[in-house]
Amino acid sequence: MSDFIYAPPQHPRLDIIYQDDAIIVLNKPSGLLSVPGRLPEHTDSIASRVQERFPTASIVHRLDMCTSGVILMALSKTAQSHISRQFQQRATAKYYYARLEGIPTATSGSIDLPLRCDWPNRPRQMIDFIDGKPALTHWQVIAEQPANSNNNQQASATVLLKPVTGRSHQLRVHMLALGTPILGDELYASAQGVAAAEHLQLHAAMLEIDHPLTYERMKFKVKPPFSID
Fold this sequence. Notes:
This protein is of the alpha+beta class. The protein is 14% helix and 31% strand. The longest helix has 12 residues, at 77-88. It is globular.
């Protein structure tokens, strides 16, 4: 993707779905980095935008640039430490929706395939049973869209994805391994699958954490920008 030009969406600048003294939860659009990139032209990100208004804010987890949905930032060091520990100990809960290129042969399952960076082809990731880190994803088909020859629409399916681990590109590579890459995925889908969607059809729909101050279990949801029927 040497010809890639970073042009993140500008409106709304921030889509805040919850905020208190300890945390801020946002709906990140597809096309916006979670944190600033290395190049000067890649400084715009959900983290830098939040820090313009809340200088103490810090990132506790990330979404791929092309992935939309729920992302949470801490507003104090205490909150950051508490929530980061929850992610490390897998005490959080989360699920995603994705639209796939093709329809899986089963209606649900689990994918347990270790992943590592494909260094010569960064940022692509790859399955590696020797050097890869454990990666586990549970998945379930919730809708199927048959092929339509009248408008050249290929068959597709909508799935609910529940990652147990949080490896880079985990859901994208695991769906590729299933034989049904995510629509709009410029790294892993076919040319037809890329052309079938305006952007990556992967959305972080729900995140559940224990509040770092009150310890109350809190659940945040955002509807995907694409149809899941």
